Please model this.
Amino acid sequence: MNALTLRLSAAKCACSFSTSSSASTKLGILMMNMGGPRTQNDVGQFLTNLFSDRDIIKLPMQSIAGQVIARRRVGKIKEQYMQIGGGSPIEKWTRAQGSGMVKQLDRTNPDTAPHSYYVGFRYTEPNTPQAVEDMIADGVDHVIAFTQYQQFSGSTTGSNLNELYRVQKRLDPESKLQWSFIDRWGTHPKLVSSFADRVEAQIAKLTDDVRHATPILFSAHSLPLNVVDRGDPYVAEVGGTVAYVVNELRRRGVNNPYRLVWQSAVGPLRWLGPQTEATIRHYGSIGYSSLVMVPIAFTSDHIETLFELDIEYGKVAREAGISQYMRAEALNDHPPFIDALATIVKEHIDAGFPTSPQLLLPDPGSESAQTITTRKWIAAQAASQAERKK
Ligand SMILES: C=CC1=C(C)c2cc3[nH]c(cc4nc(cc5[nH]c(cc1n2)c(C)c5CCC(=O)O)C(CCC(=O)O)=C4C)c(C)c3C=C
Ligand SMILES: [Fe+2]
Ligand SMILES: [Fe+2]
Model:
């Protein structure tokens, strides 16, 4: 009997979780991510929301400075979105992933069917308040907050969780919703295997003369060094994903050399390197004529893959004499990746909605009051899930 079955022991028919039973628990799966502008007209608001978020960047007089910086960057970023078709494809991919995931869960976990997914983006619509309102209106009792960032950072999943804490406190003051959390999954075997598929497919496209010697550059969004120093787990967790993917590639007979590099640094802060762009330039300058790039910290296409890796660094690679510059496809709607998402949720349900112990351990460096409050809420939810399991 899993936790849900136990909760249903008072129900007349404990054999089914169907929504037709008034005593049944209705699950909602909240897919959390940053979001992206749907059109060029949304770029300004997206950037304003991002630069207003103290979990990603702390500015003096945040609300004014955030707007000023957003206004300064909007022209450049709009131009980048124009070059990738006008907007971010993140909502399209999140919906494809969510619908594939719940279809599979309906098959593998009939006891908790039907499964519904909700999209909670941090900086654009559909946002967290909309998702929580929809879940309340749909009669959801238990929300699985499932981050779509596979590696944890306070600036990404941490920010989404802080927002979730504020939103549920406002929209669900009597705490009718129960919550559980899937907060990181960077080494899940099905995620690792999905990445290995994507890398292997690109390696196969290289010409015979360079196929086995071409460097694989795993590239992730960088972090400011002060965030790394604080003990944010992201850098180590990205390294963990890379190690597992390389291990899987070795198992498949792909023995190419590899490096982990960091992209997308913005502003005057010092950011973690080596930078992706400088690495491409350097390898070109010492005679490499081929590279396979792998976006390793995001599951869907976005500006960092379609613009930065493909267009911007593609040009850098050509200038540096790299004639075979390739990028592993993002996971997007790759069927083994949809299987990975559904399996991760299945394992969470089957195990009685556990909270990762990592989520409850503070960073060694200083934390915001909001993060401390959010962690207390998560700990209370974790305790009540554990209680139900007994
Ligand atoms: C795992 C991914 C990401 C981490 C970690 C991350 C940390 C982080 N980002 C900034 C500042 C900016 N990020 C911006 C855009 C952006 N960031 C990510 C991912 C991560 N960020 C993505 C996928 C995107 C692009 C969104 C899209 O729709 O494609 C931006 C805005 C763009 C710009 O102005 O150049 C900023 C700014 C910080 C400071 C940070 C860690 C503290
Ligand atoms: Fe970012
Ligand atoms: Fe960028």
The pocket of L6N33NVT (ligand 1) is lined by residues 34, 36, 47, 50, 56-57, 73, 77, 88, 90, 149, 153, 155-156, 221, 223-224, 227, 234, 266, 297-298, 302-304 (CB under 6 Å). The chain has three domains: 3-36+88-186+335-389, 40-83, 189-327. The chain is about 50% helix and 10% strand. Confidence is low (pLDDT under 50) at residues 1-22.
